[in-house]
Every structure is written in C-alpha cells, then in structure tokens.
Amino acid sequence: MRYVYGITSALLVGGTALALVTQSPVIAQVAQNERSEIAKAVPRAGAPESFADLVEQLQPAVVNISTKQEVTLGVRLDPFAGTREPVTQEQQGGGSGFLISDDGYIVTNNHVVTGGPRGEAVNQVTVTLTNGKEYKATIVGRDAASDLALLRINATGLPFVKFADSSRARVGDWVVAIGNPLGLGSTVTAGIISAVQRNLGTGTAYDRFIQTDTAINRGNSGGPLFDLHGNVVGINNMLISPVGANIGVNFAIPAEAAIPVINALKSGEKIQRGYLGISIAPVDEDLAAALGLPKERGEFVQRVEDNGAAAKAGLKRGDVVTKVDGKEVTPSQTLSYIVANTKPGSRIPLEVVRDGKTMTLYAVVATRPPEDQLAGANFDPEDDQAVPEDPKGTADTAVQNELGLSVQTLTPDIARAVGVDAATRGLVIGAASANSDAGRKGLRRGDVIVTANRVPVTTSEALAKVVADAKKAGRDAVLIEVLRRGGPSQFVAIRLKP
C-alpha cells in the first residue's frame, strides 16, 4: 500500500488461492498470439461481439504465481538456556505472470517475488498453469527499479505469447487483462486504454505507465494486458483506489519499457541506467517567481556531487536545467527520466539557465549507482527511525542484538549529511534502541562509530567480529569511539546485552 493524499496506490499482490481450469491442446512452437484463430477472433474495426475466441487462445499462456517466504519478526530470549533465537513466520503471497517462450520463461512483477522489507527474494515460487499443472520456478533475475522479474520453470512445449509495440497504443483502444485477482484463477476483464505515457510523479527511470479502466485487483499484478491482436501491450502493475480495490484507475508497465529489461535479465546482463550526480527540485510557482522563469519548466539543481558527471560538465547549484539532449524538461518528462534512459557514456547537451542567462553545457553520462547506495546519499540524520525488526544479515543481527544499534557503512555523502569530514571512515548509526545501554548513554542516529576496542570498523561484519571477540574473552562491554558533528571523537563503553 502507498497512501498519497488519502488515496491508496497498491501493488497488486494477491493470496495463494487457486482456481484451475482445463487447458486445450496447443502447438508449442507457435506463439498463442500468432495462431490463425486470432484473425477470426478480432474484427477489422470496433469491439468484438465477444472476446471469447481471443481469450481461449491466450489464457493457456497466463500463469498463477504463489510464493512462500520465511520472515524474521524479532528475537526471543530463552530464559532457561540464556540464548536468543529468531522469531520467524512463513508468509504467503503471489500474483500473475505469462509465458514468453515455449521453454518456460515467465514474466512477472518484481514485487510478486519479493518477500522481505528489504527487498529480498522469496524462498519458494510455485507456478500453476491453467491445466492445473504445478512447477517449482527459479528466479532468473529481478530489477527493482522497473519492478520486473523473470522466472523459469523446467518444462518445454509450453504455450506462450509475444509483446506488442506499445508505442502504437492509443487512448481508447480496447484491452483485455487475464490474471488471478483476489486468488480467483484465470479471470478475464476488458476495458480501454485511458491514458498512455502516464507520469505518476515518482521521478524514476520507469515513471511511464499505460492507464486503463480494465478491472484489475490484487493478484492481477504481473499479468498481461493484451491488445485485440492478442499481443502483450503492458504488464499489470498497480492501481489507485481509496478502498484498495479496483475503481477503474489502473496502471500497466508498457511493453516497450519492459522488453529491454527482460532481455537483459534473460541474458544475465547488468542493467545500466544513466546518472548525472545531482539533487533536483521542480520549478514550482514560488520558485519560478523567485527566478523569473516560467513555472513547471525545467528543474532546479539543489546539489552537485563532487567529481560527478554534472560537476565535470560545469553544472552548479542554483542552475535550472531546461533541456536534456534536446528534450524539454517538464513535469511529465522529468530530468531523472530522461537521464536514466540515456546510455551511460553518452555525451549529451544540457540547456541551463544561470543568473537569468541561457547556456549549453555538455555532460558525459555516468552509470547510476545501486539503489541502496543512492539511499545512503540521502541519509537524513533528523529522520528518526526505530531499529529495524528484520536485520539484513547475520552481522547486522549480531550488532542489533548485542549493542541495540542499526549501522551502515559511512560514505562521503552520508559524512557530509551528518556533518563530519567526507574522508572519515567508519559506521554511521541509523537507529539506537532506547532500551539498550548505547541508547541510555546518548548514542543516536547520525553518530559515527570510528573504532571498536581500538580496531577501525567500516562494516557491520567488522563490528560484529569485535563484539564476538569481546564475548570470547569474557568481556561484557565494548569500547566504542564515537564522532559527532561539531566536536572531537569520544570513547564510550557500551555494555553488551546479557
């Protein structure tokens, strides 16, 4: 669920209930949407009297996906043994998908096969065909930025479908969705395309959707949106609703955006996106008035990363970027979208307004860093957070359990955010438990741990090792060197949890 101004924008993950139907024999070597029956199912113009013939050919290529994931809820103390053990729970979920080859490749949404709060893949994926056959699926690849995933089952001679050229989709075109909403297997709904190239304001590389009034609900996620030629024009992704269920405002990832990602996942290639290394803000009415510029045209540069692509091009704080590679920067065509979809290494012109004067700079586009690194660059020391209940790994768990701290490696960007020298090496505290000795002694989010027991620490694994070594030596405390904005480092002895 995402709540925006009181409206729920929900990813369409459903439960694991299944409804199975019998599948007609198919010719595996021919795509379902290439068979001669399709021509008979679709009239030359207008809506068909029935979608039945079309659906009959396409349904066998649409699959139900059910998942299982072991999730850590917390840590439990055994008072008799004096040990701590994780408290886990098996969670179930699922959605829809569709076969794109006769040898078992299946496209779905990444969030359908994501199980934990940190974006981990689920432990088990089961795919069920319309004839009731079940297969264990492997996750070939996932891409969180586009919310796409590629699975594979060990089978051949399977029915499959192909993608459409979604750039030719028009508002008002009829479309058909097939999927498993609310656990009701192989459900068919029809409607029209309500909008194309819909920008939802996320500012990401894939903030372009096909909007449709076709009834889509939880469990439809990852399923295909077909045009009347039987080709996949989009991949159902999310809905907007005040009640969490369909009200006719639904969104699909366009095929043209999905195809390059799916091809990269299939071939094992790393997906690369463009990056300039700047923080930006839209030119709203107030900012436009202050700068004497038209509103909603261009984006304002808030920060420029040292030695980044933008810095090397001569971009400065306070500049307004109005065009990128000849494309106007507008609310519907953001700077982030244009740059992210530009091949790294490309040299592109940037039209910039600086002090009321227009100039052109040239930037060589860099490669976008991993999302967790970008999240670190936006570290806000004032954003108070609780210690996460589901640590990312064993080292994080040990640090949290023994010290009551959540930590991450200090980067130059985070160092600047917390007010220490950018060259400082160590760990930044993300959260400190109020019930821990560290919390009681005043350690807080934004503090930097430089050493532990006089040993430099730059990873949670290094800190966990110091803690483990201290316990082996019979010590019940660790000496932490802490650095905080505006002062010298200080040593604080932190007691380990009994």
From TrEMBL:
<dbReference type="InterPro" id="IPR009003">
    <property type="entry name" value="Peptidase_S1_PA"/>
</dbReference>
<keyword id="KW-0346">Stress response</keyword>
<comment type="similarity">
    <text>Belongs to the peptidase S1C family.</text>
</comment>
<feature type="signal peptide">
    <location>
        <begin position="1"/>
        <end position="19"/>
    </location>
</feature>
<keyword id="KW-0378">Hydrolase</keyword>
<dbReference type="InterPro" id="IPR001478">
    <property type="entry name" value="PDZ"/>
</dbReference>
<keyword id="KW-0645">Protease</keyword>
<feature type="region of interest" description="Disordered">
    <location>
        <begin position="372"/>
        <end position="392"/>
    </location>
</feature>
<dbReference type="InterPro" id="IPR036034">
    <property type="entry name" value="PDZ_sf"/>
</dbReference>
<feature type="domain" description="PDZ">
    <location>
        <begin position="265"/>
        <end position="356"/>
    </location>
</feature>
<keyword id="KW-0720">Serine protease</keyword>
<dbReference type="Pfam" id="PF13180">
    <property type="entry name" value="PDZ_2"/>
</dbReference>
<keyword id="KW-0732">Signal</keyword>
<dbReference type="InterPro" id="IPR001940">
    <property type="entry name" value="Peptidase_S1C"/>
</dbReference>
<keyword id="KW-0677">Repeat</keyword>
<dbReference type="InterPro" id="IPR011782">
    <property type="entry name" value="Pept_S1C_Do"/>
</dbReference>
<protein>
    <recommendedName>
        <fullName>Probable periplasmic serine endoprotease DegP-like</fullName>
        <ecNumber>3.4.21.107</ecNumber>
    </recommendedName>
</protein>
<keyword id="KW-0574">Periplasm</keyword>
<dbReference type="Pfam" id="PF13365">
    <property type="entry name" value="Trypsin_2"/>
</dbReference>
